Amino acid sequence: MGLFGTGVARICAVVAAASAREMAAQLRTALRETPTAELRLDWLRSDSERRRFLAWLRRNRPRRAVLLATCRRREGGGLFAGSVQSELDWLAQAAQAGCLWCDLEVETMRKLPRRSLRQYSLPPRILLSFHDFRRMPALTPALLAHWPGEADAIKVAGMARNIADSTRLLRFAAASRNCVAVPMGEVGLPTRLIALREGSALAYAPVSAATAPGQVSLHEMKYLYRAHTLNRQTQVFGVIGNPITHSLSPLLHNTAFAKLRINATYLPFLVKDLRDFLKAVPDFGLRGFSVTLPHKQSILRHLQDCDALSADIGAVNTVVVRRDGSLYGCNTDYVGVLRALEKKLSLAKSRVLILGAGGSARAAAFALARAGAAVAICARRTAAARELARAVGGEVVPRRALKTEHFDVILNATPVGMHPQIGISPLQPSELHCRIVMDLIYRPERTQLLKLAAKKGIATVSGVEMFLAQGIAQWELWMKRRAPQKSMRQAVLAALRAKERRRSSP
Question: Could you tell me which CATH number the domain at 334-467 has?
Answer without folding.
Answer: 3.40.50.720
